[in-house]
Amino acid sequence: MKKLFVARQPNLFEKFAFPHFKINEDYKIIDAVLEDETIVMELAKDFPDVATGRNRTPIEQTLRFIVLKTQKQLDYRSMERTLQNNLEDRWFCKINEETPCFKTIQNQISTVSDKTMHAINDRIIKEARIRKFTKGKKMRIDSTITESNIHYPTDSSLLVDAMRLVVRTVKRSKQAIPSGFRTFKRKIRYAQNIIRTIGRRNKEAREKAIRELMEMGKHIARTSKHIHQRTITKQRILLERIIAQTETVLSGIRVKERIVSIFETSARPFRKGKAGKKVEFGQEAQIVEDEHFITSWAIHNKPSDTAYFATAFKKHKHVHGKLPREVAADRGYWSPENQQAAKDAGVIHISIAKKGKKAHPEEETTNLRKWKSLQRWRAGGEAKISLLKRKYGLTRSYYHGQTGMALCVGAGVIACNLATFARMAMVTGP
Question: pTM for this one?
Answer without folding.
Answer: 0.92
